[in-house]
Amino acid sequence: MKEEIPRNSAYKIAQDLIEDRQLFDGARMGIHDAQTNTNLISKHYSPLIVRKYNIVNGWPLYIGLICDEDLSDLDGIVNGIMAACSKFGMLTNNIQSMRNVTGIISETLQQYFNAKKENCVEGVAILLYVDKCAIENFFGDFMNHTSCRIEWAGIMSMLPHI
Predict the structure, then answer these.
(1) Looking at residue 33, what is its pLDDT?
(2) What is the rounded distance in angstroms from the CA atom of residue 161 to the CA atom of residue 31?
(3) CA-to-CA distance for 101 and 107, rounded, in angstroms?
(4) Are the CB atoms for 127 and 65 separated by under 8 Å?
């Protein structure tokens, strides 16, 4: 005999939220937000993510993104950006070239995700470390809000040590 789960249990609460927060536009969850650029009320469904890549000749590339859109294809997008940068000879032993790479990454992410949902990219943070040279690139909330930079710095101090 299957045991009845009490209505006020964590399982039931989560089940109800999962059913209630499904959005019509894919894998994202939250409160329906098709009429606004960003999710105004249920921001906890589009938190900051930080992803580490080792795709610049083995050197680490960290990308932070605050975005009210489905990020399931982020890895493919970053891989495509890096393939284009490589094809056009941007991955060279040159400081300015590496700075340009971070700019291409930032602008491509903005254009790609904003094309899915207008103005949904609220912040982009990039840290590229290449042989004793750290290059950071900030857009949006990371430029405008100290709290976002503090959160980014905290993650950056923790993430490489995990």
Answers:
(1) 67
(2) 35
(3) 10
(4) no
Alpha helices in the chain (DSSP H): 10-20, 74-87, 95-116, 141-144, 146-158
Give the mean pLDDT of the chain: 86
**pLDDT at position 117:** 86
More confident residue, 37 or 133: 133
**Separation in Å, CA 112 to CA 31, 33, 42, 93, 134:** 23, 19, 23, 28, 25
User: CA 44, CA 34: separation in Å to the nearest integer?
Assistant: 17
Q: What is the mean pLDDT of residues 129-142?
A: 94
Please give the helix or strand (H or E) that residue 129 lies within, else none: strand 121-129
- The predicted structure's pLDDT at residue 159: 82
Query: What's the start-to-end Cα distance of the chain, in Å?
Result: 44
Instruction: Walk me through the domains of the chain, giving residue ranges and CATH numbers.
Output: 46-161 (3.30.1130.10)
Decide: pTM greater than 0.90.
Answer: no
Of residues 37, 34, 14, the one with CA closest to residue 23: 34
